[in-house]
Amino acid sequence: MLRKASSAHLRRFIHFSFLTFFELEQNIIVRVATANDQGYAETITTEMEESAKARGTGIAKRSPEYIRQKMDEGKAVIATLADGTWVGFCYIEAWEHDQYVANSGLIVSPAFRKSGVAKQIKQRIFELSRKKYPNAKIFGLTTGLAVMKINSDLGYEPVTYSELTTDEEFWKGCRSCVNYEILMSKERKNCMCTAMLYDPAEKAREEQEKLAAAAAQQPVEDERRHFAGNFKLFERWTRFKQFVLLKNGKSKETEGRPEERKNSILNFLFFW
């Protein structure tokens, strides 16, 4: 009798949870931000700062005035509930005379994380970027594996830092990150973040090759990195890269102390 009651309770709990998430998703509105959304600017920048501190790595620090400017320009996407509760945000930055575009500052309110809204925001800001800057290369720097997965679904590929913008204004945004010293010690060639890029010209070429191959009824050789299909392997590589960068940063501190070097190696082998 108790077992039957427990099973019934579990089914009701699962059913209620499903309805709650379903209803929540239906109530979230993801749209282009306007000047009418300026009241959210303080909340957004505060959450950006708190999130960066919690992760130990940073979104470039922005002021509420900067966020309001992006809203005025129509270069931002905001997510809210129907009642006006703030859910998430992201904005567009353009570099080198609009040759490069970054979808920056993706942030979701803690209460709505793991609800799938981050993917919706990224999809909407990506579409907005393609509309406003159809010929620009869209890039991003992130340590978040979830964001990397979303980017890969949108067609981004991992690239070296040399393929990103060289605009000094962009790199100044990294100064507020706790890993800035690592970035500069590597002469801006590597850091804890993974660089990802969407190149519209390359995508157009790939599509033309596929169409030509289909017309000729011949298989086309895919020269891409097959990133989407090897995400688990890429995840392990990302953690390895971060381990190496952090280890090199602490090498002077542990020099001459073999026990600490041994512990760092064991941590990598068993916990990465």
What name is given to the CATH topology of the largest domain? Aminopeptidase
Note the run of SSEs as H and E: HEHHEEEHEHEHHEHHHH
Under CATH at level 1, the class of the largest domain stands as Alpha Beta
The tally of helices reads: 11
Describe this protein's structure:
With 272 residues, the chain is of the alpha+beta class. It has two domains: 199 residues, 3-Layer(aba) Sandwich (Aminopeptidase); 43 residues. It has eleven helices and seven strands. A seven-stranded mixed sheet has the order 1-2-3-4-5-7-6, with helices on both faces. Strand 3 and strand 4 form a beta hairpin. Helix 4 crosses helix 5. It is globular and about 55 Å long.
How is the secondary structure organized here?
Layout: H1 2-27, E1 28-32, H2 41-55, H3 64-73, E2 76-81, E3 86-95, E4 100-108, H4 117-132, E5 137-142, H5 145-154, E6 157-158, H6 168-172, H7 180-185, E7 194-198, H8 200-215, H9 231-249, H10 251-254, H11 258-271
Parallel strand pairs: 4-5
Antiparallel strand pairs: 1-2, 2-3, 3-4, 5-7, 6-7
